[in-house]
Amino acid sequence: MGSIIRHDKEDNALFVQQKKDYTINNYMKLDQSIVTPCYVYDLALLRQTLDTIISASAGMPARVHYALKANPDARIVAEVAQRGFGADCVSIGEVRHAIACGISADKCVYSGVGKTDPEIIEAIHLGIECFNVESLEELQIISHLASQNGKVAPIALRINPHIDAHTHHYITTGLAENKFGIDISLFDQALHLATTLPGLRFRGIHCHIGSQILTNEPFALLCTRINDLVARARQAGASVDYINVGGGLGVDYEEPVTNPIADFQGFFDTLRQGLDVPAGALIHCELGRSIVAQCGTILSCVIYVKEGLERHFVIIDAGMNNLIRPALYQAVHRIDNLSAPNGTPTATYDIVGPVCETADTFAEGYVLPRTRRGDILAIRSAGAYAESMASQYNLRQPAAVVYTEGEEIL
């Protein structure tokens, strides 16, 4: 049996005080001192996922950048760094953190629509690999700041290719009139600035069309758009050595235990077949959710089972401050009752947290084995955009973190 490495945050919520062990697939037993709610990260699954990416991209001129916004946990980022991955950063804080966790600055790409002057200057001095530039004005500002500091900043143009990723409108980023990126109709103007302004070194093209994309068709369309942009840039006399397709590959939220690893082979095969890569150029991708979502689980204790007139509520000690995705995106996560023996009759519940917001709801009309106070629930696929988006709303303390080495939570 692998080891369980525990890290508690002070004054956390409810201790699991039942006298019995909650056995998880006969491999891992919950230590009675582990507090809930807590994030459990399976490092063995993370490593298996990273190795799958390396295998699926073998033979390609490609570099994967881990999107730190998905989960900046230091242990996770260190594992990513050990595999030679780069970092996709959207703040100078993420750039600093990536470097502190072992990813060299020259493997960090910096995106984001609101880079401030001090952040740009620091990133230039750190020697990051590339700025993904998201507006014409940002090009002019980076040019001015780099020249003022006697530096040359490497830049790529983030172009919106007008591709519908068929995902939630909050996480669709590649359409026209989006706060992210430069509209494709402005490409020629942006290219002229990128190749003529002082203090800039134009490297290539960046696109990101959205998140939680479950088919390869949008990526195939993206390859066609990028090929056209690269060809136009080269026809204009620009050298292109950087082709960044962004991220967005989705995961199976409905059956995470059955499908713990995303379709990386299909994703990279689509890039292999679809991209026309100039000699000496490198394909860059920015994967986040698909790397870490399935290696994370939230464990939460049932505080009350509230019997309403028509609806029954399971009130747990995890809240939207620990996992905001259901409230923000209407996201669906699989939830299991780890305490209920096999064969327990089922009932239908609304599963809610303790936060003083009606939106603090994880599921409505959800079927679980009959649930009681003190039962432990597992909220699956919580490795991405859970801890990274956590807050202390209602002055709730940060959840504990537990690392496992291959134990299964079933």
Structure characterization notes:
With 410 residues, the protein is an alpha/beta fold. The chain folds into two domains: 150 residues, Lyase, Ornithine Decarboxylase, Chain A, domain 1 (Beta Barrel); 177 residues, Alpha-Beta Barrel (TIM Barrel), CATH 3.20.20.10. The protein contains ten helices and 22 strands. The strands form four sheets. Strands 1, 6, 16, 17, 18, 19, 20, 21 and 22 form a nine-stranded mixed beta sheet that branches. An eight-stranded parallel barrel has the order 7-8-9-10-11-13-14-15, surrounded by five helices. Strand 9, helix 4 and strand 10 form a beta-alpha-beta unit. It is elongated. The N terminus is likely disordered.
What is this structure's SSE topology?
Layout (H helix, E strand, L loop, with lengths): L3 E4 L6 E2 L7 E2 L3 E2 L5 E2 L1 E5 H14 L5 E6 L6 H9 L3 E4 L2 H9 L7 E3 L6 H10 L3 E4 L2 H13 L4 E8 L21 E2 L3 H10 L3 E7 L10 H19 L6 E3 L19 H11 L7 E6 L1 H4 L3 E12 L4 E5 L8 H5 L5 E3 L8 E7 L8 E9 L6 E4 L20 E5 L6
Parallel strand pairs: 6-22, 7-8, 7-15, 8-9, 9-10, 10-11, 11-12, 11-13, 13-14, 14-15, 17-19
Antiparallel strand pairs: 1-22, 2-5, 3-4, 6-16, 16-17, 16-21, 18-21, 19-20
How many extended strands?
22
SS summary, helix count: 10
Biggest sheet record: 9 strands, mixed
Assign the CATH topology of the largest domain.
TIM Barrel
Radius of gyration: 23 Å
